[in-house]
Give the backbone structure.
Amino acid sequence: MLHRIHIQNFRSCYDTNVELDRTICALSGRNGAGKSNIFKAIQWATASAAGASSFTISPAGNRGQKVDTYSIDLNFTISNSHYYYVLQIPGHRHFGLPYVIETTHIITESLYIINDDGNRDEIMRREGVEIKIADREEPIRIQRRTPAISALISLLPENSTSLTHLRRVADYFSGVRYYSMENSSDSEETVTEQKYRDWLFTYKTDGQCTESVALRLIYMFKEDPSLAEEFMSIIGPGGIGLIDKFDVSFVKLNPLHSILDDLDASGPTQLYYPNFTPSDTMGGAGRSFAFPDLSVGTRRVIEIITSLLFDKRSVMLWEHPEDSIHPGLLRKLIDILRTYSSKTQMIFTTHSPEVLDILAPEEVLLVTAPGGKTEARKLSSIEISRAKKFLSNDGSLSEFLEPIDDLS
């Protein structure tokens, strides 16, 4: 679980502190306050730290300003172990020029484990091309843009006491995923057998996930019936009652079929069609629909549930999951996310009064941008006490927060 995040010079996050003490919470604030920038900073840092390739710099932005250093500190818990990770990358020294890592630039990374008494024990510290390890006298040298954690996992011997921590942190960072939800209305109607097999090989080889809802649905139906059953238990008649039936159809086409032109396929081709039958309370009840033919809100709920079950992430960062979803269904969806938050930390942005009214005051962080600099804060203990009194008198949390947001 992420506990504290400190971001410096990442887009509008010039000196932004985020404190989290819940496994589900929402960032609420006006457009342009920097909610998405907080998510992008977390995704950038964790993907860079756990990646096997070179550090990515361009997402940090701020090319129009002179920036000495991009940095992010992450304080987090994995099982019962408490860790602290720091990443610092040299910034732009020349106004307006594209970013290039010069040979003189020094990337620094540090990883610590925090003891019960609050003291930190250093696991590794990287300065430029040298990494110092807690259980090794001689430093290890790597290329200047190579992430330290990934390099050490491949270089250290199995008897290294640091290796367990490094693998644990790498797995945790790899499990952080940002869901922008920008393309939720787009989805494949069909998937060729070859495309599915190509992706399945990659997935089973290195665990690479996919943005495709169709591929994940096909996998659940074909390869993991228990996961498909869990999916239906949530979305079907025994759950939120959105869908009565889910299955995948298989169609074999001959080489002359016109649809193959659009699919860039040739020869006898088998196509997979994920199909859904809406519930009795939905339009089209009793008829089978391909995923793209469902309503935008229905597709969005299916995408969220599919991602939740299939991706199995350590942290899921959602952008406005409420868009296009009926308020009555939102409460059920948030309750589902809350149930699964014991395994996966859920953090999402929202403008929705309906979402805020489902949450507790302790589960909301207010994001503002005084002077153009993003800030995020929890409600104070006094504000939480006042909010609970307000709620007990039949007021709503969104109504309570509105004047606070106006004053921020």
